[in-house]
Amino acid sequence: MISDSLGAERPPGADDVAIDLVQPVLDELSHVDREVVQVYYWDELPAADIGQIVGLSKAAVWQRLSRLRQVLRARLSGRLKEKLRDR
Q: CA 12 to CA 64: how far, in whole Å?
C-alpha cells in the first residue's frame, strides 16, 4: 500500500470503509468487467494475459480498463459524497 510505503499509519477500520465503498461498485459491473479490474489490479496480470482469460485482444483490454477507470471514478465519487453527507 502507498501509505505503508510512506510510513503513515492507516486509521482503524480504514480498510473496512474502503471495502464498503468499493465492493458494491464492483458488484454493479458485468462479470467480464469485474474480472478485468480484479485480475489487473489485484493479481497484477499484464493486459495480454487478461485478454487470453476473458477472450479480448490486448488493445481491447486497455480500452476497457480506461473506460472502467472512468466508470469507477464517477461511481466511487458519488458513493463517497453520499457517505460524507450522511455523517
A: 34
Q: Which domain holds residue 48?
A: 31-87
Q: Which residues contact 68 (CB under 8 A, 6 or more apart)?
A: 29, 33, 36, 37
| Residue 38 covered by a domain | yes
Q: Is residue 70 part of a domain?
A: yes
Cell numbers at 33, concatenated: 468487467
Tens-digit pLDDT string for the chain (87 aa): 333 444 455 556 656 767 778 889 999 999 999 999 999 999 999 999 999 999 999 999 999 999 999 999 999 999 888 888 887
The domain that holds 64 is classified in CATH as 1.10.10
> What pTM was computed for the model?
0.74
